[in-house]
Write a structure and sequence with these properties.
With 141 residues, the protein is an alpha+beta fold. 39% of the residues lie in helices and 20% in strands. It has a four-stranded antiparallel β-sheet, sandwiched between helices. The longest helix is centred in the C-terminal third of the chain and has 11 residues. It is globular, with a radius of gyration of 14 Å. Bound molecules: adenosine-5'-triphosphate and magnesium ion.
Length: 141
């Protein structure tokens, strides 16, 4: 399988609970290389742009409100098959339905406040990485 990169966001709920470090530790223990990392407080415009594909969904307003309420940690993760591997490590969108020992089961609260984001395809990973880390910020070492 090819080495891929994917975007991770540690969402406001997890940062507020001081779990960003624990989540990054799980990520590294699971064999991902963190090749870019930054804390940022998303503006409404940046959050709306990131979630543009969900604009028509009923939870869009709630999602933007949540994602802008306090800082997030954004990271680029690299591994063989990183897109699928990071989705597997996160678990299902709804923490109540997530498999044991997944990040959303361990750290998520509910279907909205679910601790982390992960790109859902290689194409979206490229778009999302470029959205937060244009160009040289992503280490190739
Ligand atoms: P993410 O894109 O954050 O990795 P996902 O791909 O598992 O999550 P999506 O369907 O893309 O799930 O939904 C994006 C985000 O919108 C979810 O992670 C969650 O924070 C929020 N969300 C999804 N469904 C609901 C819902 N029914 N009510 C409130 N918020 C929701
Ligand atoms: Mg998604």
């Amino acid at each position: 399988m090819a080495v891929e990169r994917t975007l991770c966001i540690v969402k406001p709920d997890a940062v507020e609970k001081h779990k960003a470090g624990a989540i990054l530790a799980r990520i590294e223990e699971s064999g991902f290389r963190v090749c870019a990392l930054r804390m940022t407080h998303l503006s409404r415009g940046v959050a709306e742009g990131f979630y543009e594909i969900h604009r028509q969904r009923p939870f869009f307003g709630e999602l933007v409100q949540f994602m802008t309420r306090s800082p997030v940690v954004v990271a680029v993760l690299e591994k063989e098959g990183a897109v699928g591997a990071w989705r597997d490590l996160m678990g299902a969108t709804d923490p109540a339905k997530a498999a044991p020992d997944t990040i959303r089961k361990l750290f998520g609260s509910n279907v909205g406040e679910n601790a982390t984001h992960g790109s859902d395809s290689l194409d979206n990973a490229r778009r999302e990485i470029g959205y937060f880390f244009p160009g040289a910020e992503v280490s190739s070492l």
